[in-house]
Design a protein that fits this description.
Elements (H helix, E strand, L loop, with lengths): L26 E2 L19 H26 L13 H9 L6 E3 L5 H7 L3 H8 L23 E2 L8 H15 L5 E6 L6 H13 L3 E7 L2 E2 L2 E2 H4 L6 H6 L3 E6 L3 H18 L3 E6 L18 H8 L3 H12 L4 H22 L20 H16 L12
Parallel strand pairs: 1-8, 2-3, 2-4, 4-5, 5-9, 8-9
Antiparallel strand pairs: 6-7
Helix pairs in contact: 1-2, 1-3, 1-11, 1-12, 2-3, 2-9, 4-12, 5-6
Length: 393
Amino acid sequence: MSSELYNDGPVVHTPTFIDGTSVEIPELKILKQDGSLYQGCDMPKIDETLAVKVYKTLAFHRVLDERMVSSQRQGRLSFYMAALGEEAASVGGAAGLKPQDMIMTQYREQGVLMFRGFSLEDFMNQMFSNKKDLGKGRQMPIHYGSNELNCMTVSSPLGTQIPQATGYAYGQKMQGLDAVTLCYFGEGAASEGDFHAGLNMAAVQEAPVIFFCRNNGYAISTPSDEQFKGNGIASRGVGYGIKTLRVDGNDILAVIKVMQVARAYALKENAPVLIEAMSYRLGAHSTSDDPSGYRTREEEDKWQANDPILRMKNWMLAQNWWDEAQEKSLFEQLREEVLAAVKVSEKINKPHIDTLITDVYDTPTSQLQAQLEEVKSHVNKYPEAYPFTAGKF
């Protein structure tokens, strides 16, 4: 290995510390909260048709989250995780890609599937784990996935999708596909070992993967300044030799722009990109969390003023691509549709118990068959404990 490999900076003759916190990483901003643009900004490729689709997806995202949190509080749903205030990260990311690109999410990116056409019924069937659920009722709520839409199923353990995304992108490269892989995660997940393994492997193997970190300030209740020192997550990309971008995560136009730029680079150079989106989680971490125990109302109000949906609405109004009548009609319609879908999906029967062992092996093993029979026997013996079953087996 050449001794000059890393000597691309100034030469010094006394030991000189490099302070990672002082590394300057610019943050892309295009859209102001009032709907106006920053002077000299580089706009993404977006026309009225795409803009309206993006805005309607943001609205759908907001309404679904609000309604499903309410459903959980009513006891109709076991669990939910909303993305209030962070919708631009997932919707903007999907809008900047192509349909053939694979997307691996964490658990706050419902907007990705929404933008690609995952239906309201698909969302509901998954959350209620009924027999129409594409995942056959095997996952807890908000663990969506769609093979048809190139969206990998969500996995609960933090960070597992990061090295998987590197491997998938490397496979795309080997096949010569016109496609990249986008991988979402939060800044808390960046503390997992999988983050470091995934980024280093992507850099060394030159995989066309885009790592997208949603830095929303908290890993459940732990603020970012108690998670790590240094200049956010973006500085880590520089350390791994990965092209890195930082963006205002509440600026939908900026998110679309960095995604378009990142995709073009990753595909042309067969190399990874790290994007850090600076945002804030307006709601609780999940329906099991109470954020009032670790942050102030004043802090939340400050970020409420940076609502990404309101920001895009103001821009749409200024473009004459939207009006208040459309706004009122859209939200009223979405609220009615979501509530109606809840009432339908919660009444659909659960998957038949036999589906529990399908898709594990091409042909279920004798051991799995024996275990299934044991489960059936237990259910039949104690039917009152399993009211969700469709009957005895």
